[in-house]
Specification:
This protein has 14 helices and 16 strands. It has helices spanning 3-7, 11-21, 28-43, 58-72, 85-101, 159-162, 165-176, 241-251, 253-259, 348-363, 379-389, 405-418, 433-439, 449-459; strands at residues 47-52, 78-82, 120-121, 134-138, 148-154, 182-192, 220-224, 278-280, 284-287, 292-295, 298-308, 318-325, 330-337, 367-371, 395-399, 422-425. Strands 8, 9, 10, 11, 12, 13, 14, 15 and 16 form a 9-stranded mixed sheet that branches. Helix 2 crosses helix 4 and helix 4 crosses helix 5 (85-101). The chain is elongated.
């Protein structure tokens, strides 16, 4: 390679050489991103948005691009902002590794170890500058006093920064402040995918937020959805048609549309439809001889239960129990809107805990997740007492929810309803649940007590029940059992 090639390699060559050093090929989709980034840089475009589907390697390519920029001009100062500092640090560490191992950049590593830290580093450069060559910060961190020639906003919009109106307002405010950090003539690059209808990446203004123009108005955009305009995969070597279809089912229509097709989806479009439920009219049966638990003739392999308690504040206290069969279908077998006996001498909390304990015993539940927000703080001890009194082997899991209820409900129901994978017992029709589904709108004031409880049960990882009912042939979960292996090892 000629000397001018070594000191002036274009970005695509720089990327290919790095991948070769790592023993990797450079897919066409990555070459396209590389060409776009370099052309924009050489053209002098200072406002860029690279929006590509999840898992396509966009952050990796931008990290290599940052290394290339420092290779071309070691005096640059690059600030990486991400949803949190750990995510930003991941890109900085990757760029450090590239500079250490890339065939064109080994001389850039400084002699002093204190200039080569985990969340910041400084390459060998001619100028004496206060700010490091590359610095990682979370979007909520204090960056006052910092200066940068390039700011990379890598996945600043994620559920933790955009799942409520307050968080979205705070994110926009924080990002606006980067104008005071960016040096005159500096470049700002956004990298990410939309996570909300009110996305900062939207190409049209969100008038509901008072926007007269899109948040990133004037930015040069490159959008790479998973499925192109011809209906083909943008990366067929990694995402085949079958892979895409499986992804549609597992992610659900809203998340797939937003994260893979890059179209910000209004959460209201995820309205729940009772018509997508499959109803069944059969009881649960435990077959002792086969050590098997069945619903409608299908073997159940796991269960989860969620109790969202309430006391006299207008909300309903609801327990939902969901079973899962071997094929991955969900069976909403019990939805109990707990009732109180005004003539009972027992207090309200004890009455509810007794009802929950009876349901746990009847359904052979391995555990109950109890939402401890607010009124639920003192209930776990009472429930454990009632379970012990009835000799019911059921664990109590205390859950504190901080995520918005609308988001929890939509994410729990979206994929399973789209896949027609949720079965509901006919008894559910006698509860307010179907009306709650039909009338539900995010941010609305309609009742959603049953929806919240079922969403909680659906969101829980399947709970193996092997440990809960081991006496009397009740171990219907068929969990893994210890095996003795004969070996010739002299241990």
């Amino acid at each position: 390679m000629a000397k001018h090639d070594i000191t002036n390699a274009d970005f695509k060559l720089f990327l290919v050489l790095w991948n070769q050093r790592m023993g990797l090929k450079t897919p066409i989709i990555h070459k396209g991103m590389a060409n776009w980034l370099e052309e924009a840089w050489r053209r002098g475009d200072t406002r860029l948005l690279l929006m590509a589907f999840r898992s396509c390697g966009k952050s990796t390519i931008v990290g290599v691009f940052a290394a290339w920029l420092l290779y071309r001009d070691p005096n640059l100062r690059i600030l990486v902002l991400a949803a949190d500092e750990a995510l930003a640090g991941k890109m900085v560490r990757n760029v450090k590794r590239i500079i250490e191992r890339h065939p064109l950049t080994p001389a850039m590593k400084p002699k002093n170890a204190d200039q080569w830290a985990g969340d910041r580093f400084t390459v060998r450069r001619m100028l004496e500058l206060r700010d490091p060559s590359m610095l990682a910060r979370g979007v909520s961190a204090n960056i006052t006093g910092s200066r940068a020639d390039v700011i990379i906003c890598d996945d600043v919009e994620v559920p933790n920064t955009a799942d409520s109106a307050e968080k979205r307002h705070d994110l926009r405010t924080r990002l606006t402040e980067t104008a005071f950090v960016l040096a005159p003539g500096g470049t700002q690059i956004y990298v990410g995918t939309p996570h909300t209808y009110f996305s900062i990446y939207a190409d049209a203004p969100r008038t509901e937020l008072g926007e007269g123009a899109p948040f990133l108005d004037g930015y040069r955009r490159l959008e790479i959805p998973l499925i192109d305009k011809t209906g083909e995969s943008a990366w067929p070597e990694r995402f085949s048609r079958a892979d895409i279809e499986r992804l549609k089912v597992s992610a659900g229509p809203n998340k797939f549309t937003s994260q893979m097709l890059l179209r910000p989806v209004n959460i209201a479009e995820g309205r729940l439809r009772p018509a997508l439920l499959n109803f069944y009219d059969s009881s649960m049966a435990y077959i002792k001889e086969l050590n098997r638990l069945e619903i409608s003739g299908r073997e159940m392999v796991s269960a989860s239960a969620w109790w969202d308690p309430a006391f006299g504040n207008g909300d309903g206290s609801v327990l939902a129990a969901v079973f899962t069969d071997a094929e991955g279908f969900y069976w909403l077998h019990k939805l109990a809107y707990l009732k109180l006996d005004p003539l009972s001498a027992l207090d309200e909390a004890t009455q509810q805990c007794q009802q929950v304990a009876m349901i746990a015993q009847f359904l052979r539940l391995p555990s109950i997740s109890l939402e401890t927000n607010g009124v639920g703080n003192f209930l776990p001890a009472i429930l454990k007492h009632e379970l012990a009194r009835k000799k019911v082997r059921c664990a109590v899991r205390e859950i504190h929810n901080r995520r918005p209820k609308d988001v929890r409900i939509l994410e729990a129901f979206d994929a399973v309803l789209a896949a027609r994978a949720l079965y509901a017992n006919e008894s559910i029709k006698a509860t307010p649940f179907l009306q709650e589904m039909a009338e539900w709108n995010p941010g609305g004031r309609n009742r959603d007590d049953g929806l919240d409880a079922v969403a909680g049960a659906l969101s829980q990882e399947p709970v193996r029940i092997a440990r809960a009912y081991t006496a009397g042939g009740q171990d219907w979960m068929k969990g893994a059992k210890p095996q003795r292996a004969e070996t010739d090892f002299g241990v």
